Amino acid sequence: MAASLRALQDASSRKIEISAVANNRSYHLYYPLIDDKKAEIRMRDERLVAHSVRSHGIVVARTHMNDWLILILLVVIVMVLSRIHPFYRYVGKDMMTDLKYPLKENTVPLWVVPLYAVLFPMGVFMSFYFYRRDVYDLHHAILGLLFSVLITGVITYAIKDAVGRPRPDFFWRCFPDGKDVCPITVFRYSNMIRFYMFLSFLSLCQRFACFLLGCCHFLQFYDQFGDVICHGDSNVVREGHMSFPSGHTSWSFSGLGFLSLYLSGKVRVFDRKGHVAKLCIVFLPLLVASLVGISRVDDYWHHWQDVFAGAIIGITVSTFCYLQFFAPPYHAEGIFQH
Questions:
Q1: CA dihedral in degrees (307, 312, 314, 315; nearest 10)?
Q2: Where is the chain membrane-spanning (predicted)?
Q3: Which long-range contacts (CB under 8 A, 24 or more apart) does 113-116 make?
């Protein structure tokens, strides 16, 4: 009898609790003698097979209705912040030396960013759904990804509007013709210099006089405090004041960083079995995001500090959003959602 009681106590101490979600309720099943971790995972996977979009899609959507409403609010905030006029930081003539990099086209256009930072990760999530038929995993992955991208967008645009740092190619945005001065030495009619200087106290007269004399198209390009007065396209100049932080980089790391965390949990990269191929899979999205950031510096649209700050924002937000819905990748339950 004593031996039987001792055996029961040993069995009860080795119980493994497995939680599952069904009909919006949580219940617990106990498997007393499971030593094989793969068998445990297989049992849990069997319970998740029934959680398809058809059977549980409406349930999980209703459960997280508030989260989807918050996402809509974040979309509105991002749209408003993207329309706000950024702060026009002081740009003196001596600063223009560092802002004369050529005005180039984007290597990675803005419309491409949602394709690889949002749609591609969603495609990966869908592939795992077809393999495991777990609508909760699919829903939480998509929801977490959208939260990561939109929160990053709010933070990025808010900082852009508040800082107003000029881009490296700001000079050519401000002065498309490359002229920021109208020196007296270029006057065609030297005998009218005194007449020109007499009229220079009025900006309108100054422009008119310079037009008649043929010296240049514009005259005064810096105000009394030395701040620049641009004559380029207003939208191009406005875009030139939104350098810090890099939006391409922050969005890339928020979307692809979330995908990297998702893959690290699914392939069990931290299982301590030394499979380097798993690390390659996890680091590949981060490599793509890094190359996008490098392209922003190569195109002279951003300073390196802008790209570095954007990467930090994207990685930080994606990590927090991932941990809201999934266990840490190094955790034993890292392949499952909360």
A1: 130
A2: 68-88, 108-132, 138-159, 195-222, 276-295, 307-327
A3: 113/248, 113/251, 113/252, 113/292, 116/252, 116/255, 116/256, 116/288
Contact assessment for residue 174 and residue 232, using Cβ atoms and an 8 Å cutoff: yes
What's the number of CA atoms in the CB half-sphere (13 Å) around residue 221? 22
The residues that bridge with 21 in the sheet, in sequence order, are 26
Q: What is the pTM of this model?
A: 0.72
Closest CA to 313 of 158, 208, 101: 158
Tokens of 279: 């690390």
Q: What are phi and psi of 73, to 5 degrees?
A: -65, -40
**Short-list 211, 206, 165, 205, CA closest to 188:** 211
Looking at 84-214, list the stretches that DSSP marks H as alpha helix, in order from N- to C-terminal side: 113-114, 120-132, 135-163, 170-174, 193-199, 203-213
Distance CA 222, CA 193 (A): 21
Q: What is the pLDDT of residue 39?
A: 54
Tokens of 204: 């309108």
Q: Flag the least confident range among 57-61, 147-151, 255-259, 282-286.
A: 57-61
The answer to whether residues 51 and 87 touch, using CB atoms and an 8 Å cutoff, is: no
Q: Does the pLDDT value for residue 161 go beyond 90?
A: yes
Name the band, by pLDDT with cuts 50, 70 and 90, for residue 52.
Answer: low
Query: Could you read off the pLDDT of 258-274 as tens digits, one per residue?
Result: 999 999 988 888 777 77
